[in-house]
Amino acid sequence: MQLHIRHETLYEYDRPAKYSVQRLHLTPRPDPSQRVLNWRILAPGRLLEQVDAHGNIVHLLTLEEPHREIRVVVQGIVETVDLDVPQADGPLSPLAYLAPTALTAPDEAMRTFARRIGDCCAGHEAVATGLCEAVGDAIRYRTGVSDVGDSAAVAFAAGEGVCQDQAHVFLACARVLGVPARYVSGYLYTGDRHDVASHAWVDVWLGAQRGWHSVDITHRRPAIGQYCRLAVGRDYLDAAPVRGVRHGGGGEHMRTSVLVAESAQQQQ
């Protein structure tokens, strides 16, 4: 499948900001499940491309002149594979994705929940399937009830949240059971041009022979075909599409718009 993607992020400030640095995970990563046919980033200031510790393509955006807004637009076409192929390993060992982070540290209730699932499952693949169903049941998908900084423990206690919250709870529980798992940020094509958005899911390590495989907790299925992968990491903070700091500017207002559609090139 060929996906046409356009993602615009606009930051507006009450007063001119003197200096800004933004870290952009907005270029699809090189993975066996996808191929970038064309891609571009439009942004003010200076862009420096890097590859981070997880194998993601990162752009460091720096603005050194006073500014009242930052508008970043990415657009391109990505060809995806509708097969459950192993994803790229990246520079880090799978063992790096066993350690808890501030956003994925489990509390005792989550440990008990995870061990109950683990007792019923033999092997990493069975754990991944069991956790996908269990977390999907435990964390009802609902927008507007959580904050981007909420931890897995907060989401688990609330029993509801968005895809980011479901992914964090899954990661916390998988790591309790000794199964390496990593956060994935990207895009999902839903078949409706007016009902698409950025999305989050997880990769689960199934062993050296089978590698990393993707699971979408929100939709309870393998994350293949309709998914475009931007970045992976230990949690949201490692893979956030846009994250940065600034000096000055006062209050901040952010707006985003995402379009994911079947490419016109494919439809011809």
Task: List key phrases describing it.
2 domains; C8orf32 fold; Immunoglobulin-like; 5-stranded antiparallel β-sheet; single chain; 268 residues; alpha+beta; 6 helices; 7-stranded antiparallel β-sheet
What would you say this structure looks like, in words?
The protein is α+β, with helices and mostly antiparallel strands and 268 residues long. It has two domains: 2-81 and 241-267, Immunoglobulin-like; 94-239, C8orf32 fold. The chain has six helices and 14 strands. The protein has helices at residues 108-118, 124-138, 152-158, 163-176, 236-239, 264-267; strands at residues 2-24, 34-42, 46-51, 57-63, 67-80, 140-141, 160-161, 181-188, 197-205, 212-216, 221-222, 227-233, 242-248, 252-262. A hairpin with a 4-residue loop joins strand 10 and strand 11 (221-222). The protein starts with a strand and ends with a helix. The mean pLDDT is 94.
Compile the SSE list and pairings:
Elements: E1 2-24, E2 34-42, E3 46-51, E4 57-63, E5 67-80, H1 108-118, H2 124-138, E6 140-141, H3 152-158, E7 160-161, H4 163-176, E8 181-188, E9 197-205, E10 212-216, E11 221-222, E12 227-233, H5 236-239, E13 242-248, E14 252-262, H6 264-267
Parallel strand pairs: 6-7
Antiparallel strand pairs: 1-4, 1-5, 1-13, 1-14, 2-5, 3-4, 8-9, 8-12, 9-10, 10-11
